[in-house]
Amino acid sequence: MAHQLNALPAGSTILITGVNGYIGSHIANILLGMGFRVRGAVRAPKPWLNEMFDARYGKGVFETFLLSAFDDVPVLKRAMEDVAGVLHVATDLTFGGNPEATIPWVIKASLNMLEAAASTPTVKRFVLTSSSTAVIIPVADRVGVRVTEDTYNESAVKIAWDPAVPEDSKAVEAGEILHPEIPGSTMGWVRLLLKGDKLLLRVSHPVS
């Protein structure tokens, strides 16, 4: 039987936040290809996204839900109506150096999503995504590094909250970009570099 190891049966509806982003769009594309239905949370209408997935998988299996913020749990619960699984992908992508402007918001949004999911009977699975740099910041030519399930990037936490570290040194965070409207996350940095933007060069040398 195809996909017999999946925790949720094909045909289930999965809510994906940040579905118009680089990672979120790829998750939606994979799930739709596996026979799941996807409800994508977006801040504003994204007709190009609906058109892309309708063209690939047919109408009726992908829909969007307008969600301007994550501070209203009842609204989050409405987004989860009849949903079997939730993938919380959306996060702050400003890459700003002020921790007060980003970290508390990300934590609160995640907690609100978890609260809404916990009180929605149909939700059976919840996946909280993150960046690989939440585990470790890769350093070229460093040997003997071992990553386990207990690894956590404590050094990045110290850097984020250390006022002695210059702000422009804190802003750290490839594959196909599915649609020109998708910023592209880290892959988008390559596109920006080709346009003369030096963001990639700034974040490639984090303070160690």
Automatic annotation (TrEMBL):
Residues 14-133 form the NAD-dependent epimerase/dehydratase domain. InterPro entries: Epimerase_deHydtase, NAD(P)-bd_dom_sf, NAD(P)_dehydrat-like. Keywords: Oxidoreductase. The keyword S-adenosyl-L-methionine does not apply. One of its GO terms (molecular function) is oxidoreductase activity, acting on the CH-OH group of donors, NAD or NADP as acceptor. Pfam families: Epimerase. The keyword Ribonucleoprotein does not apply. This is NAD-dependent epimerase/dehydratase domain-containing protein. It comes from Parascedosporium putredinis. The lineage of its organism: Eukaryota, Fungi, Dikarya, Ascomycota, Pezizomycotina.
